[in-house]
Design brief:
Helix 4 runs antiparallel to helix 5, helix 8 packs across helix 9 and helix 10 packs across helix 12. The chain folds into 2 domains: 201 residues, Hypothetical protein af1432; 59 residues, no CATH class. It is 61% helix and 0% strand. It has 16 helices and no strands. It is flat, with a radius of gyration of 21 Å. It is mainly α.
Length: 335
């Protein structure tokens, strides 16, 4: 009995005609023998869940740098929340949950330490530029498993690359993750900002909350229901115009009152200078990079600017601080 084939038959019979079927995947760059238990997208999900880059997300900043408190989001908890929202929508629309979850789990693997502030400074430092969505693809194609990558299907990599606001995913499952990412960070960043006493729920603009809801729970429920209603039995994932306008308006308000607020940005200058110092150091002492990065220069012909950027981007906040202290902070000694 081949369980995978049974599952593929089930997908063909019961999923939406707009779903991405596992058996119709465009495949992997390096062909592999199919698993007898898991579909192609199930294997991708499992590979992402078990990879080192995924585990490091638990120590990477979402919004608040150097935060003290157990209940603020990290990049890992954000990723899990995106996956939960996306799976809920995918199931309701009868689309491929496994593909949806795989894209969600991998969408932020390329994020730097210290959140978007780290991303901005690496973009300035690297001659190749830097964007977390492109780096996420590089992680799964090149950096994981000591340069071999995870060999994911094309559909998963496409969804990871196109989860950004301006992205155009090739599958509806990718479109679900693209919207779920925004729904998650808008609402959960509001929750964290209220916890940090930056503002109260009542101070959110009524022009947006009257449409979306007056609590995190209400807004999540409203937006998820809207996407499902607007996308049911249609070949696209969308929100109603009024709902999307309110969501984008609230997102813009957050940029002004949270992402650029002095509380979450209080340590940003220090974090960015830390990354600058690490980048300059390893550019001058490239031989001190871990062996797997040196091998990429030798075996793949990668430029040192590229691998130094890869190394720093993969660091967790705590590891970046530790490396900085090891390299630049004087240590006491005993005679």
């Amino acid at each position: 009995m081949n369980i995978r084939e049974t599952r593929e038959t089930w997908e063909a019979q019961y999923l939406s005609p707009y779903a991405a079927l596992s058996k119709n995947s465009q495949g992997r760059d390096v062909p592999e023998e199919p698993c007898d238990i898991r579909t192609a997208y199930q294997r991708d999900r499992d590979r992402l869940l078990h990879c080192k880059s995924f585990r490091r997300l638990k120590h990477k900043t979402q919004v608040f740098l150097a935060v003290e408190g157990d209940h603020y989001r990290t990049r890992l908890t954000h990723t899990l929340e995106v996956a939960q929202i996306a799976r809920t929508i995918a199931r309701a629309l009868n689309l491929n949950e496994d593909l949806t979850e795989a894209i969600a789990l991998g969408h932020d693997l390329g994020h730097t330490p210290f959140g978007h502030s780290g991303e901005r400074v690496l973009d300035e430092l690297s001659p190749f530029g830097f964007a977390h969505y492109r780096q996420s693809v590089r992680v799964v194609e090149v950096l994981e498993k000591e340069g071999r990558g995870l060999n994911l299907t094309k559909e998963v990599r496409d969804g990871i690359l196109n989860h950004r606001t301006s992205g155009h995913p090739a599958t509806l499952e990718g479109g679900i993750v693209r919207l779920s990412d925004k729904i998650a960070y808008i609402n959960h960043d509001i929750d964290d900002a209220i916890r940090a006493r930056i503002f109260t729920e009542q101070e959110l603009p009524a022009s947006y909350t009257n449409v979306l809801g007056h609590s995190v729970r209400e807004r999540l429920n409203t937006m998820i229901h809207d996407i499902i209603a607007q996308s049911m039995n249609r070949p696209e994932i969308r929100m109603s115009p009024g709902m999307e306008e309110a969501m984008q308006g609230l997102r813009g308000w957050l940029f002004q009152h949270v992402y650029e607020n002095e509380v979450p940005k209080a340590e940003e200058g220090k974090a960015q200078q830390l990354i600058v110092s690490l980048y300059q150091y390893y550019m001058e002492h490239v031989i001190e990079l871990p062996e797997e990065y040196l091998l990429m220069m030798v075996q793949r012909g990668e430029k040192k600017e590229r691998v130094v950027c890869d190394y720093i981007a993969g660091m967790s906040d705590s590891y970046a601080i530790d490396r900085f202290e090891q390299l630049f902070v004087p240590k006491g000694w005993k005679s």
